[in-house]
Each structure stands twice: as structure tokens, then as C-alpha cells.
Specification:
By secondary structure, this protein is an alpha/beta fold. Helix content is 47%, strand content 10%.
Length: 318
């Protein structure tokens, strides 16, 4: 189903505003109470072991620092390939996520292994660049072999009500993810929810991104004060579930920034299952943006197997 059919008219800023503002308002108290309730659920023994392995398989293992080097990226890829050298049954993360100029180094290190290389693009994290620059940023990463592109929306345009501009930019980046031959790169659209001010805006931005062709909607860049939270992720999961129910298109969700412990990650898994359902308990449809999370999950995983907590020196420090 195309965007104009969904909106019910030709796409203009006015028609997009009318469509987005017709969405039901978010019950802030109810949303936060529901998230708090889900956070109290616990998972034990065999179920916990299954959950820890699933969490690892859902990670986008990430380095996004100005001081990144080819050697640091290769080290990150080696950690993705062999997360625990003492337990070769440990699953690998879904992807490594790097800046676009590091894609070639990540691809060389990953080789033919089934680990994706994701690249942040579109003037990440601010998004403050011309569309021409954003498109070239994306095309360069795709040409270097990126399997996935994590773009940022123009929050200024969105907050000023210029929804058509945001839609057009996402649509253009989606087109830039295409390859002349071979599979297109998947597009993750970062909403930067910490800057969107209200839950209603987060719901609207989620719907706008899905309308424009996002394969995933992602909470955050990890570079602002408020990143992923359980209520925000719950809201985005409700959005993708409702989109699937209405249009039959399954969109992924990626919370990123601030998820550092296995206990936190398990709370997110419970929220996925209870909100979107089992279809989203899959790395193709749910990811964690993570840099330090893997270390804690590996320690918890080892504790379950050995009944001994080995401490932070068991794993490498990123």
C-alpha cells in the first residue's frame, strides 16, 4: 500500500499534519505505569539462559567515537566474531555499527560471516546538513558494503511541523540504500526521541518514518541526554504492532543508548513479547544499540553456567 493511499490524499504538509494529528493521543500516565509493571517481571534459570543468548544475537555492537581507528574497528569486529573465547557456543551479535568511513575496515574483518555491518549516516548525530550531503554520506556507506544504514531525521523540521520535508528526506535516503545489483541496505530511522518533547510527537514521528519506508525505527543516537527508555520503547512497539495489524508490514524497533545491563535488556525483551508479540523476538525485528551491554551479558551468562560471578575483568573493556 502506498503512502497516499494510507494518508487518504495527495501528500502535502497539510495532509500529513491532518493524518498524524488524527492519531490517538498518548496516555502518559498509563504508558509509564504499563512500562513500570513490565519492568517488575523476572526470568529465571533456563528461560534466563535463553534470554541472554537472544539479547546477544540482537545487539548492534557499536563504536561511534571521533577517535575511532581501523584498529579499533577490527577489534570490535573480532569481539563480535568471538564474544567469549572460553565459550565458542556464545552467539554473535547481529551487527557491528560504525561510521561510514569505517565500513570497509569492518567488512574486511567480518569477511563472509553472518554479521551485518551497519553504518550511521546523514550527518549523524545532528542531522544538520544538506540533503545532497546526506545522500552522498549514505551512498558512500552503501558502496563500501554496509548492510544497514542508520539515518537521523531532521528534528528541527519535524518540531516546526514541516512533516513533508522529513518524509521526503527519509524517502530519498531509502532510495539511496538501493544497489544497482544485489540486496538493498536496510534503513533504520533514528527519531532522537529525547529531543521530540512529548510522547505524542514520538508516536507521530514513528508513523511518519514507517510511512516513508523505514525498515526499523530507532530511539536515539546515544549522543543526547535522554536516550532509550522503557516507556518510549513500549510506545514505539505499540506503533509497529498497530502498523502490522493495519497494513501487514512488519517494522523493527531499536532502542539505543543507556541499556548497559542484562537486567535492563531482559526488561526490554519482556516488553517486546507483551506488547508486539513473538514475531518481534527476532534480530530481524528487534535490536539493541549497545557498546558496553555485551560485557555484562557475558558475565551473567558465565555465572549461570559456573555458578560463580567472575567480575568485570573476565571480559575485555571497550
Amino acid at each position: 500500500m502506498d503512502a497516499e493511499t494510507i494518508v487518504g490524499s495527495r501528500l502535502t504538509n497539510q495532509s500529513l499534519r491532518r493524518w498524524l494529528h488524527s492519531l490517538p493521543g498518548v496516555d502518559k500516565v498509563g504508558l509509564e505505569q504499563r512500562a513500570a509493571s513490565l519492568a517488575t517481571r523476572s526470568i529465571k534459570t533456563d528461560s534466563k539462559a535463553w534470554a541472554l543468548d537472544l539479547i546477544i544475537s540482537m545487539m548492534d555492537l557499536t563504536t561511534l567515537e571521533g577517535a575511532d581507528t581501523p584498529a579499533r574497528v577490527r577489534s570490535l569486529c573480532n569481539k563480535a566474531i568471538t564474544p567469549d573465547e572460553d565459550d565458542l557456543d556464545t552467539p554473535s551479535p547481529a551487527a557491528v555499527c560504525v561510521y561510514g568511513d569505517m565500513v570497509q575496515h569492518a567488512k574486511a574483518a567480518i569477511g563472509k560471516r553472518k554479521i551485518y555491518v551497519a553504518a550511521v549516516a546523514t550527518a549523524f548525530p545532528s542531522g544538520r546538513a544538506s540533503l545532497r550531503v546526506k545522500l552522498q554520506d549514505t551512498k558512500d556507506a552503501v558502496a563500501a558494503g554496509a548492510n544497514e544504514i542508520d539515518m537521523v531525521i531532521d528534528r528541527g523540521a519535524f518540531l516546526s511541523g514541516n512533516y513533508l520535508e522529513v518524509f521526503k528526506q527519509i524517502q530519498a535516503i531509502k532510495q539511496a540504500c538501493q544497489r544497482p545489483s544485489g540486496k538493498a541496505a536496510h534503513l533504520k530511522v533514528i527519531l532522537e526521541t529525547g529531543e521530540l518533547q512529548t510522547y505524542d510527537n514520538i508516536r507521530r514521528a514513528s508513523y511518519l518514518a514507517m510511512l516513508a519506508g523505514a525498515d526499523f525505527i530507532k530511539t536515539s543516537t546515544g549522543k543526547v541526554g535522554v536516550n532509550a527508555t522503557l516507556p518510549i520503547t513500549l510506545l514505539m512497539l505499540q506503533a509497529v504492532r498497530d502498523w502490522y495489524d493495519e497494513y501487514g508490514i512488519q517494522i523493527g524497533v531499536k532502542p539505543a543508548g543507556g541499556i548497559r545491563t542484562s537486567k535492563d535488556a531482559i526488561r526490554y525483551l519482556v516488553t517486546v513479547k507483551e506488547t508486539a508479540g513473538d514475531l518481534w523476538l527476532d534480530p530481524d525485528y528487534f535490536r539493541f544499540g549497545a557498546s558496553s551491554l555485551l560485557n555484562d551479558v557475558l558475565m551473567q551468562r558465565k555465572k549461570l553456567k559456573t555458578k560463580t560471578y567472575l567480575g568485570s575483568d573476565y571480559v575485555s573493556v571497550d
